[in-house]
Structure formats: structure tokens, C-alpha cells
Amino acid sequence: MKITGTFIDEITHDIPSSNWGEREWEADFQAMKYIGIDTVIIIRNGYRNLATFNSKVLSSNFDMINAPIDLLELFLSLSDKYGINLFFGTYDSGKYWMNGDYQREVDINKAFTEEVNDKYGHHPSFQGWYISHEIDTYNPDVMNVYRQLGNHLKGLRDIPILISPYIHGKKQFAEDPTSLEQHKESWDKVFAEIRDCVDIVAFQDGNVDYAELYDYLLVNSKLAKKYQLTGWTNVETFDRDVLIKFPPINWPALCHKMDAATRSGVDKMITFEFSHFMSPFSIYPAARHLYDRYCESVGLTPLNAGVESDTIRLGEILSDRLENSIADTSALSNM
């Protein structure tokens, strides 16, 4: 199974911004398309005082920093151009829901998503919603957030709704990790409550040891099928096992995780996230090498991006290869 989706995290929380403009983002979308990515998920379109565009709703509630580039329009336009489905990520205040004011978080997001649907709903690539509020266990208050937001989003635009929870595993919670059985019991309860307002669940895979990852993925896959949810997996392409926060993952570890996901029976592999940790244009040199190793593994000619990192040169190569691929496909269809 290949990685066919990625988050986009430019309104960042704990990783640096790439500070890309239109040229760099288009090159990155070409690089995604080249390896078969057909889905992008903006992890959040607003976080605290930053947003992907100058939102009237957010500006009326917060002292927002001006957005000099309308990134949402850019991402949607590029998705339209390259035939990629885009999932819109909601607003995370970073405070209300963390401090127990869940209704305030919901109300702001209702107004925010109405504004977005009115302004950007004409884009054909606008094909999904992503509720950005992550949990690792059953939380009755967040269940209410999911229900209210999910029903509201479906009323605005009846397209799939995605969440990407994390596992309460030993890599992040060494003092009190959740056992496999506890994880199963908790998420059985969660799925029973949200199956009517969420369509897709993509668990993050980075918080458990590699030796136990398959067991957790299998539980996730079986629970999704039990409640008729679509089960994806979020294959993290950053490394939690080193002291630096966070470099690209090493290639053998990524291979191990992709293999575990394939064997577990998930419906799709997405990643957090391509542009920082796997792109040939990444600010991290190791990500450029990771892209080439991945290309080799799926039978594509590598870009040698780890050696030559010039955006214009690599962009021209990708553009030529995409054009040739389209031409080959058209020729076959006419035979």
C-alpha cells in the first residue's frame, strides 16, 4: 500500500514554517502528485492568532496576525489544478477547549466554517472536512464537540468528515501508557458515539513501539469496520525517537510502519506530513533523501533531491514527468 494522502501544516504548532510562496507550493504539489498523493488535509486553518486567510470571523474574536498570502485559496487552486481532494481543517483556539469552554470552541468554528463555505465552496477540490481537535481516549465533552461540529459541517456541505486521534502510548506518555485492551475499550465507546457525525478515522501511529504497532493498527481497523467507519492510518514521517524535535524519520522505520499498516487492513495511508518531512523541497535535507528512497520503493525514478535541491530545476523535472505521465495515460486510453 502506498501513501496517498498528506496533511499540510503551515499554521504550525511545534514545527517551523517553511515560509513558501506560490512557486514553492506549486512545486510541492507537483512532487505530491508524482508519487500518487490524491488527498491533502489542512491540519488547521486557524490556530490561536494565525490563519490561512484573513477571516472576518476570527478577526472579530481574536487579535489576529495579518495573512499576506491567502493560503487556503492557493491550496484549493493547486488541488483543483492537479486533481487532488482537499479536506478543510477547522480552527483551534489553543485555549477554550483546553480550559473546558467547549461550547465557545464550537460556536466560533460554526461561524468560521460558514464563512469558509461561502467564500471557497465553489472549488471542486473542496471534498472533505477535518475536525482538528485531537484526543487519545474517550472524553464526553469532546464527543459533544464532534457531534455538534459534525452535524453542522454536514449541513453546510455533505462531504466526508475526518478525525486523526492519537494513541496514549509509551513514547509520549511513558508514565501511564494505555494498554492495548484499554485502547480498544475506550475507542469502542468513542466510535459508538460518533459514527453518525464522523466518516473517517486516521489514527496517528507514532506513539507506540514499533514492535506493538501492528497490534494497535489491527484493533483500529477492526473497530472502524465494526462501526462502518472508513479506517485510514496516519503514518508519521517525522521521528519521535531522537532528542531533536522533530527530524524526518529514518527509511527503515517508515518501511516498517507502512508494512504494518498494509497488513492491518486499513483503507488508506496518509502522512503527517509530506511538505516538512518527505518533500524534495523540504527545509530538512534528510527529507529530500527520504523522498528518493520512497520513489525507488514504488518504482518511480528518483529526483536525486538529496543531491540537488534547487526548487526551479526540480520543479521543471517534475513538470516534465507529470506531462509525460498524462500523455502516456491518454495514449493508452486511445488504444
From TrEMBL:
Domain of life: Bacteria
InterPro entries membership: DUF4434, GH
N-terminal signal peptide: none
Domain DUF4434 span(s) in chain numbering: 3-282
Protein name (database record): DUF4434 domain-containing protein
